Amino acid sequence: MGYLVTVVTLFAVQALLSTMFTWLAIKVSYVTLTLQEIAIIAVTTTLCSFLPYIGLPLSLVLFIFLLMRYSGCSGFDAAAVAIFTKVFVLGGFILTKMAIT
After folding, report:
1. Residue among 62, 47, 54, 60 nearest 86 (CA)
2. Under 8 Å CB-to-CB from 71, ≥6 apart: which residues?
3. 8-29 per-position pLDDT tens digit
4. Which residues contact 87 (CB under 8 A, 6 or more apart)?
5. pTM of this prediction?
6. What does the chain look like in DSSP terms, one character per residue?
7. Of 67 and 99, which is predicted with more confidence?
8. How does DSSP classify residue 24?
9. Which residues make Cβ contacts (< 8 Å) with residue 44, sequence separation at least 6?
10. Residue 46 in contact with residue 15, Cβ under 8 Å?
């Protein structure tokens, strides 16, 4: 039971951080999205990132693809937003994991 609570907590924190930092990144870039689209991208990539071994690279590619699909932006803008978001989310995820365990 304790493991399930840890996984759910990490998922919720990572999805929240991903939504927050994506919103922040699109405010300073040429990408326009609604909060609902940001939440869909954040939850989808967060679920994908929990896969062992391939989760992080797969979630990054999926993040860029969904960002380009929903906003119609260029690949460079999508990659810049994705890298900015993933770096800060990874830092928050590591801090959360250290605090929980």
Report:
1. 60
2. 26, 31, 32, 33, 37, 78
3. 888 888 899 899 999 999 998 8
4. none
5. 0.85
6. -HHHHHHHHHHHHHHHHHHHHHHHHHHTSS----HHHHHHHHHHHHHHHTSTTTHHHHHHHHHHHHHHHHH---HHHHHHHHHHHHHHHHHHHHHHHHHH-
7. 67
8. H
9. 62, 66
10. yes
